[in-house]
Design brief:
The structure holds 2 protein chains of 2 kinds. By secondary structure, chain A is mainly alpha-helical. Chain A contains 19 helices and 2 strands. Chain A has 2 domains: 3-87, no CATH class; 91-385, no CATH class. A two-stranded antiparallel ribbon of chain A has the order 1-2. In chain B, 49% of the residues are buried. The chains are: A mainly alpha, B alpha/beta.
Chain lengths: 450, 240
């Protein structure tokens, strides 16, 4: 926008201000051009006010301008109308990550109590968090250990069916079944791991893809156990320390706390369950990265032969990556089952694996915050695209926005991969930093040994 | 003093049905620097990898420190005080220098880490300076130093070095070789060195082996081999 900001490198507020300015101009223009329209109403000419159209336009201009400021102009040396330039884009994203994580967590915790939150938003938030958790789980396998897994949904399915079958057969509670489902999924992770121990890259991807399909087809055809395409119904809901979320009867949540029954209680409870599960996944991943096993995963991703020469047991390292990643998939799966109350093989198709993998890749392999943001953008964005009715006013009533949902989604993905080919957060934080050696080393180098 | 650390007895290694090593005998004694020289494709790296267990020897025996390690899996062999700096360096490019070194010490107790780190940073001060830098951003020479340092972090009795001079400037090669000599002289580290750079390798080594087509054809002390007509003709043309 000015020479000063161009020199100092782009800061986020400047980009925001610039986008705001562009939106203001758009607003001024749209009042005359879009907001008012003269219509013939029973012989009189009246002014129709088109709030949505004008508002959408201004929003699109704002978002587009912001995106240009952040991604496009810096690379072009500031060709934009309001010139702002920067070359420190990746560093900025890393900084963003630092304050983004706590902000997101706080936001996630208070979300149910925000005045704007309603049933729809909570349902969407639960969905997004499920994918955040799946993304973090797959991140262990793909991001850390570098094993390209296209069949992650298999473990999601194993978790969901384990919970559904155990809960409906033995009538055990969610909290007992959850670890069991995780264990089953981990077991299947090991079962998948053994045959693919010698495979890498593309070959591994193909086998895992097949594995995902095998699980789904078995679920579809093993009618006596899984009820086939009809799925499993009446899966028990989780209870709050034994208190059920029911309208009537004794020992219900509402009854115990002496509050009026609301269907939102259960939704909010489910929301917190998945939030805690997801945060546990993330915390464990961060912890594991600092332990020998996590370091071995990362080293294996970098160079398997070097790992072997350092005495790392590649077999164990791969199997633990598969099984721990699968375990989190299993947890997410059993949560999915208890939330839906109904599961069928249809929920576990390849597209699910693809979306989870896309979340991990878009987020930047190995980055926790990147994966979370990617999940919000992908799942939330897909959901927002459902609501494209505003476009009808632009293109006429014959325009069916739903048809363009996947197209826009695909375009966005192509865009991200073009501008940020290594994902949103591509920098990798070292797991170990040494401070006390720093001073000494500088001295040695001065002596001319280096 | 001259206790046998590594014995290779009649080792034959195959890649599928293609024979790569045709009955190799080789000894490395405690505290020695032994070098193996030979042309491209002679089987030098294959021998080194066979000692480490990938690929496995089909015939013969490999004895390390009195124990038959021929049939052990690679990671078990590497647990036994053998460290390798592999051909082509193979450092971890996205991990920092410090993390690379930490990987080298992954089998050790945590207490000795600081001490070992001090040792390798003393040997290669440039690594201390680059401690937080990603391995992939180092120069070729620095990467080779890192590969050796990483191997040393495992506190080996026997250090296997595969072509440390590969693609490096003569000055850096000299520096690296002098560090190897230092380690051998001051700490009694036993070194088995596979090299193309026959002149430097033979000058450094106590004893040397010459390999042709998967067989050991000559052996002797470093200076003996250095002055042999066949060795000079085949490997040292124009080098002296």
């Amino acid at each position: 926008m000015s020479a000063a900001s161009a020199k100092s490198g782009l800061d986020f507020p400047a980009a925001l201000k610039d986008a705001g300015l562009a939106a203001l101009i758009a607003l001024a223009l749209s009042i005359a051009m879009l907001f008012f329209r003269t219509v013939d109403f029973q012989g009189n000419l009246i002014l129709e006010k088109r709030w949505t159209l004008a508002g959408t336009t201004v929003l699109i201009v704002f978002a587009g301008r912001l995106a240009l400021n952040l991604f496009w102009f810096p690379r072009r040396g500031g060709l934009g109308l309001f010139k702002i330039a920067s070359s420190a884009l990746p560093a900025r994203f890393a900084e963003l990550g630092k304050w983004m994580a706590p902000v997101l967590i706080v936001f996630a915790v208070v979300l149910p109590f925000l005045p704007a939150s309603n049933r729809y938003i909570m349902d969407l938030a639960i969905l997004v968090l499920t994918y955040v958790m799946l993304g973090w789980g797959l991140n262990i396998v793909v991001g850390l250990a570098g094993l390209l897994d296209l069949g992650y949904v298999a473990f999601y399915a194993v978790g969901a069916y384990s919970y559904a079958l155990i809960a409906t057969t033995f009538d055990w509670s969610f909290w007992v079944c959850l670890p069991l489902a995780g264990m089953f999924a981990a077991l299947w992770g090991i079962i998948l791991g053994f045959p693919v121990l010698r495979l890498r890259g593309d070959y591994l991807a193909i086998v895992t893809l097949a594995f995902g399909e095998i699980i789904r087809i078995v679920l579809l055809n093993w009618y006596t156990l899984t009820n086939g395409p009809d799925g499993i119904t009446r899966i028990p809901r989780p209870s709050f320390f034994g208190l059920e979320f029911k309208r009537f009867g004794d020992g219900t949540f509402a009854n115990y706390f002496n509050i009026e029954y609301s269907s939102m209680h259960r939704i909010v409870f489910l929301y917190y369950v998945i939030l805690v599960l997801a945060l546990i996944t993330s915390a464990l991943t961060i912890r594991l990265r600092r332990l020998p096993i996590g370091r071995a995963w990362e080293a294996m991703r970098e160079d398997e032969i070097a790992c072997r020469s350092l005495g790392i047991n590649i077999t164990n390292t791969k199997l633990t990556a598969f099984s721990i990643g699968a375990m989190f998939g299993g947890f997410a799966g059993s949560f999915f089952a208890t939330r839906q109350g109904f599961i069928s093989p249809e929920s576990f198709t390849f597209i699910e694996s693809a979306i989870i993998l896309a979340i991990v890749v878009l987020g930047g392999m190995g980055s926790q915050i990147g994966v979370a943001i990617a999940a919000i953008v992908m799942i939330g964005g897909l959901e927002l695209l459902r609501d494209l009715d505003a476009l009808k006013q632009l293109f006429g009533d014959n325009f069916d926005p739903a048809l363009y949902r996947m197209l826009l989604f695909g375009l966005a993905m192509v865009g991200i991969m073009v501008w940020r080919p290594r994902g949103l957060v591509s920098s990798r934080a070292p797991t170990v930093v040494l401070r006390e050696h720093k001073a000494r080393s500088a001295d040695l180098v001065k002596e001319g040994h280096g | 003093m001259s206790e046998m650390l590594l014995q290779v007895r009649g080792v034959e290694t195959y890649y599928g049905n293609i024979i790569a090593l045709r009955g190799v005998d080789l000894d490395v004694q405690q505290g020695e620097i032994v070098t193996l020289i030979g042309a491209n494709g002679a089987g030098k790296t294959t021998l080194m990898m066979t000692i480490c267990g990938t690929p496995r020897a089909r015939e013969g025996q490999i004895i390390f420190d009195g124990e038959d390690i021929t049939q052990l899996p690679t990671h078990d062999i590497m647990h036994r005080s053998i460290a390798q700096s592999p051909e082509g360096r193979r450092i971890f490019p996205r991990m920092t220098v410090l993390e690379n070194l930490q990987m080298g010490a992954i089998l050790n107790e945590e207490e000795t880490f600081g001490e070992d780190l001090e040792l390798v940073y003393g040997l290669f001060p440039v690594l201390a300076e680059r401690s937080e830098q990603r391995g992939g951003t180092l120069s070729g020479g620095e990467q080779q130093m890192l590969a050796i340092a990483r191997a040393l972090m495992g506190r080996p009795k026997l250090l296997l070095l595969d072509e440390p001079s590969l693609g490096l400037a003569p000055k850096i090669v000299k520096q690296i070789f002098s560090v190897i000599k230092d380690l051998n002289a001051s700490r009694g580290l036993t070194v088995f060195l596979v090299e193309q750079n026959a002149y430097h390798a033979l000058k450094l080594a106590d004893r040397g082996y010459v390999m042709v087509n998967g067989r050991i054809t000559m052996t002797g002390t470093g200076s003996e081999l250095l002055h042999k007509e066949e060795v000079r003709a085949a490997y040292l043309e124009g080098a002296v």
